[in-house]
Write a structure and sequence with these properties.
Low-confidence stretches: none
Strand content: 25-35%
Structural class: mainly beta
Largest sheet: 5 strands, antiparallel
Distance between the termini: 43 Å
Shape: globular
Number of strands: 5
Mean pLDDT: 89
Length: 96
Amino acid sequence: MIESYLPTPPLNFHYEIEKVSKLITKVWLVHEENYDYACGKDVRTIYCFVKGSKNLTIHKPKNAKEPYVKKYCELDDLSSQSPYSLYVPTKTVLFD
């Protein structure tokens, strides 16, 4: 069900859905290229979290393990979002 609401993935990428609990689902963006440092594993980044059982809401990721509490958008609005990730870095400075 969630797959049909996702934006079109970028070239050489696809999405994977991972059910974490009854109420939380992770959406991953997976790069289809092979990288030596990945030791044969998929290279992926967290795209977003989907929360709820009936009224599904989209939450930005804090990191790959936890979402922000505040809802970002409704499931219906997901297809109009960036296809790369809803993650927004909290720091813009590389060095302190």
